[in-house]
Amino acid sequence: MSLRLPSCVVLGALLSLTPLAARADEKAQCIAASEKAQQLRDDRKLLKAREQLLLCGRDVCPGPVRKDCADMLQQVDARTPSVVVRAKGKNGEDIVDVKVSADGTMLTDKLDGRAISLDPGVHAFHFEGAGVQTDQSVVVAEGEQNRVVTVQLGGPAVSVGGGAPPTTATPSRGAPIGAFVVAGIGVLAAGVAAPIFYLMGLDQKSADEAPTGCKNTQPGGCSQAEIDSIRTKLIVGDVFMGVGVAAVIGGVIWAIVHYSGGSKEAPAAAKLDIAPAAYGRGAVASATLRF
How many domains does the chain have? Predict the structure, then answer.
């Protein structure tokens, strides 16, 4: 026994199954987009990951899948860096009609101050504008938002990041400490050490010439050793005075040369060693300057 159904009944059944098949297909697409988005995110291809997350976040997708994609989309957006491209002319004016591409992909043909999203990593930028073409590699860090990339067109330099082209800082000249040390030692030698030896020698001479001194109480006057002692003190005073004056003059000249541009870096410290010593009936002194 055969049962024949009216054609309208068969057609209706087929039509009722079509939405179910479409929904099943859409569900499969949502799940596939979610899985693909996760893989792209892990590969740091954040822009393509975002495209897949928008697909699996549609209302037609199952609730759990849609929620997972929405949460992942927020994370991807937070990690996706962006740049703001600016172009300057040779006089510092803004240039608007500039074509900008990165890694061979056109980003914009006119600068309007809007941020451009990129995947993190190193990008080869190409700029065309004001009759000038230039290339620059830019490292864009993950999560770096609205980084300013500035290019100088028609000028001598190209700057990336930070707004204005970098300028070469003029090295500052520190205080010539060595010059001050040398001059200070000279002042001590001439103003302190030399007078001390002068006073010692003159006091000893005055004592010898006094009524009770060796000059008036000993036959033949003071001994040669006593006379040499006085002479040594006075000569040592002369040595300290000469070395001190020379050190002061040298320190002043050093400072003048330093500040006039003859020296860009000053030594951190200097030491002047003065070593007087008796020699025969006189005295000698050695001076050593150490840096």
Answer: 3
Three-state DSSP state, 277: strand
76, two tokens: 């991807």
Is 123 exposed, middle or buried (CB count within 10 Å of its CB: 0-12, 13-18, 19+)? Answer: buried
The predicted-structure confidence for 205-236, as pLDDT tens digits, reads as follows 888 778 877 877 777 778 888 888 888 888 98
One domain, residues 74 and 122: no
**Structural domain includes residue 187:** yes
64 and 86 co-located in one domain: no
Q: Decide: residue 85, CB within 10 A, 0-12 exposed, 13-18 middle, 19+ buried.
A: buried
Two tokens, residue 244: 């001190």
**Model-level pTM?**
0.47
CB 187 within 8 A of CB 244: yes
Question: Residue 247 carries which side chain, given as an amino acid letter?
Answer: A
Residue 183 domain boundaries: 177-290
